[in-house]
Every structure is written in structure tokens, then in C-alpha cells.
Amino acid sequence: MNIQIEILAALSVFGLLSFIVSVFSYLSMQKLKTLAKYNNKQIIFLEDSLFECEKELEKNRIRVENQSRFLSSLENSAPKPKELKEETFDAATQRESSEINLTEQKHKVLSLAQNGQDSRSIAEKLGMMPGEVELIVNLNRPLQSYS
Fold this sequence. Notes:
- There is one protein chain.
- By secondary structure, the protein is mostly helical.
- The protein is 80% helix and 0% strand.
């Protein structure tokens, strides 16, 4: 009978241990399910964020293409400076000639500007860039006093 009691006690202890292990397994499984749900929510959030980023990237790609086309059209529509004829001068003659030409050109620009012509038409007439004409005109305006 002692052996039967010992076997019964051993089985009871084994049953109790099995129950405890089952409870811990169940609790662990519940934690894993909760963690899986949280991970699924995070995956959905990240997929949505990725989708939004891809949409924004596509918008920016289209903007860049449009700006590139616009820049290309500006480059193609900008007036090309007239090519200068190559002449051979010695260094002194070339310096004097360029100083005279610059002064004459400056006077022509200022004269045409005073007659009311815009910088683009002046640039076309004199074979210059419009920005160069605007610079000459702006540098030769009388200083205005600011009060």
C-alpha cells in the first residue's frame, strides 16, 4: 500500500506540474498573440507610410521632369550671343581697342536705354546678353537717396 500511495503522490505531483506548465504555456501564448497583433498593426502602419512616401516620390519625380523641361525650353529660347570675328592684334592694340569698344558699347547701351528700349531689344541689336545690358544700365543710374 505504501507503493500505491507513493505512486499516487508522484502522479499528483506530476499532474500539478503539468497543470502549472500548461498555465505558463497558455499565458505565454496569450502574450505572443498580443505581440503578433501589435506587430501586424505596425506592419500596416509601415505599409501605409511606404505608400504615402511612394506617392510623394512620384509627385517629386513629375515636378523634376517639368522643371527640367522648363529649363530646357529657357535654354533653347535664350538669345545666343553673336559670334565675334577673329582678328589678329598685338597685345597693346587689343587692349586699347577693347577699352574703346567697351566705352562705345556702354554709350550705345545707355543711349538706347534712354530712348526707352528694353534690355532684350538692346541686347539683340548690340549682340550682347540681356543681363549684361541690364547691368550696364543699373550701374549707370544716378544714386537715389533713401529717406
